[in-house]
Amino acid sequence: MDDWIDRNYDYYEILTPEMKNASLQLQGPCYPVIFPSVNVYWSCQYIARASNASLRHWKQMGGVDIKEDIVVDKSIHSFINSRSSVLKRYMADIGKAWPVLIVCGGLLPLFLSVVWLLMIRYFVAAMPWITVAFFNILIITVTVFYYLKAGWIGNDAISPIIGDHDPYIHVFGRELNHLRAAAILMTFVMVLSILTSIAIVRRILMGTSVLKVAAKVIGEVQALIIFPVIPYSILAIFYMVWISAALHLFSSGQVVQNNCNTNCCAYDLLSEKVNCDHCCGYSIRYTPHIAVAIFFHLFGCYWATKFFIACSSTVIAGSVASYYWTRGETSSEVPVLPVFDSMKRLIRYSLGSVALGSLIVSFVESIRFILESFRRKLKVTETTPDSWFGKMVYHTSQGCLRCVEWTIKSVNRNAYIMIAITGKSFCRSSAIATELIMNNILRLVRLNVIGDVILFLGKLFVSLSSAVFGFLVLDTHKYSSGHNKLSSPLLPVLVCWTLGYVVATLFFAVVEMSIDTLILSFCQDSEEHEGTAQFAPLLLMETLNEQNDMQRLTQ
């Protein structure tokens, strides 16, 4: 092997005249390197069209014409657009765009989330309007970017070709179809978002009064506004390790020999002669163990994300509960920094309950995702039940599954609050939370719905900002030419969007959990004192009275 590396062998000159003529007819034993390859995370990936320089040399040697309808060309194009090849290119895009993921998926949403919390603290009356306006602007911007890269606006469509000088630069692969599907989906989301924003304009004032209570808590409870930096740092380290392991998993496999016959020959380096046995080469294939490992890796990432977010929510709930049960005032019984005291209680008493709750949510959502995948396959193959009873059962099961998922999510979040308030186990806290919700359902709905909608739009505002900046960076010369060129910006932008949403969820949980904890504490306080809350802060009582007055006016 060392001699082979040091010396430039010309195997073609060793062949007999008959073998040379057969090779020029694409019948072996030597074959031209017509289709160039590029490094896709430590494995060779063919480019979509033949190299002009290689074709020129091939014709000078007297080789047969390379046409679009020959078997070799068809097999190469089939390989290029196979699902495994597209998946490898997507994973290679993640490997190339890792600086963008760190900046646009990690640091930018951190900055925007902190700014949003500070503005909630000091400009609470204007923030709902600002959030709704910027959200609609950003979602329109992201949709336009998708249309640009899909080639429907302008002339900047994506292509897997590396060199801009190649005349086949406008030949596309599966990535373009995926991007066009994403553009159509974003169009529907954009229209729905604009209509929803118009519908909630008259309700924003109601949500503003709820956010005032959360702003008061953020100002009173020390260290609450900077606490999400701790789970953010833990999640950042976890994601870096997870992505590195994922890239190694997707680039691994078992080297197996291809099925072949004795009708081909190749030059053997060891025997220094042409050998016609086992000459058809090797390929890398995923084994069942690797497929299971990839599935376990994806599920582990989802569970770990839910677990860290649940821990953050529990700590915030414990801090706000300390504020509520001291009537919003400083007490000798409450520590100076309730956030760190709540963290200590979580680690010492409630870590197992939080892990169990996050596992249940992850498991149910994974099952729903698998069943949804089966449903789409059945829909594609048109095997949906034809009878009215079959259709009724089919759609009812889907609706029930979504209701179960939503119920578990809702109960879980409130269960974390009751774990922080009462210190009981997950199952017992879930029962207490469910009972409080059922006894005070009208009050909870009236207070929570609009506030949750505004917070959800705020999360989308942060994550969409990450996606827009990711688009802008990936559209620069560095990522659109040369070996750093991405096959498609779709997956890196989606990763930036997802990471931005996770970071925003960590920080916005401060406001979200503050509102929910205050309301559930108020409900429990009322239950314990025969309908009259004894520990509710003054601002919360004023807000509840305002809501009651507005409800009477509406009636």
From TrEMBL:
It is found in: Cell membrane; Membrane. It is a multi-pass membrane protein. InterPro entries: Choline_transptr-like. The chain crosses the membrane at residues 97-120, 126-148, 181-201, 221-242, 346-371, 453-474, 490-511. GO terms for cellular component: plasma membrane. Pfam families: Choline_transpo (PF04515). GO terms for molecular function: transmembrane transporter activity. Keywords: Glycoprotein, Membrane, Transmembrane, Transmembrane helix. Coiled coil: none annotated. Belongs to the CTL (choline transporter-like) family. Choline transporter. This is Choline transporter-like protein. It comes from Gossypium raimondii. The lineage of its organism: Eukaryota, Viridiplantae, Streptophyta, Embryophyta, Tracheophyta.
